[in-house]
Description:
Layout: H1 13-29, E1 37-40, E2 47-49, H2 55-58, H3 76-87, E3 96-98, H4 100-107, E4 113-118, H5 121-130, E5 138-142, H6 145-152, E6 160-164, H7 172-187, E7 192-199, H8 203-213, E8 219-225, E9 238-244, H9 250-265, E10 272-277
Parallel strand pairs: 1-4, 1-6, 4-5, 6-7
Antiparallel strand pairs: 2-3, 7-9, 8-9, 8-10
Amino acid sequence: MLSYRHAFHAGNHADCLKHFVLVCLLRHLAQKDKPFWMIDTHAGAGAYGLDSGYATKNEEWQGGIARLWERTDLPPALADYVELVRAMNPPGRLTFYPGSPYLAAKLLRDQDRLRLYELHPTDVDLLGKTFMDAGRKVMVTLGDGFAGLKSQLPPQPRRALVLIDPSYEDKHDYVAVLTALRDSVKRFPTGTYAVWYPQLPRPEALRLPERLRGVAVDWLDVRLSICRPGSAGFGMSGSGMFIVNPPWTLAATLRECLPVLKSALAVDEGAEFRIETSSE
């Protein structure tokens, strides 16, 4: 939806889970010399200021990245993500938060490629300015990322990570995610796909994780709740990442890091996490 601006939510608990998992996936792909692509269907603005503009309205980052910012006892994989955030900020000050495109650009090598889609004209303009000197390595497109996947798959190097993370403010996004993932897996069955989804008390959201499992053979589903579901019947109590063709090491990494992440971000005793795989 063109009314949605991720800047309001930058650095919140959902971003922490999504971007921590994203960094794990990118690190794994970069272990081999062969190039790969990352395709981001809903790229947003790429990076966000936390001390001015939209992010200051609700300051959701205070309940997210701010709780990890100065920790020195994090497990290595979680510390890796936090260090990437710290690296874009001045010493001792948390004033910026990286979106998925920024993190990916930092982790991709010269031979890798980044393909970004965004519908909001203001955000896509910011993306273009951020990557104006990136040359052929980064391609920014004003357009529908769901539709854009069809033109990008299969990628030339036959290795890719696809991130699908719409806002879900439009209930049609739930169907669009399933359709895009199903079509993409058929076009490029060996790719790695990461689908972010919210935990909301609405039928479409409650059914989505189970429906995603019907699309793939090899999958991992990780969910993090920071509180009990709202008694009023609305509000996001947590989020999840559904991974198709996950690295074989990812489940163990998550089992090491999620207890720490849950403890750090918990709002009440309803906080919990769940890690499920197709092999268990």
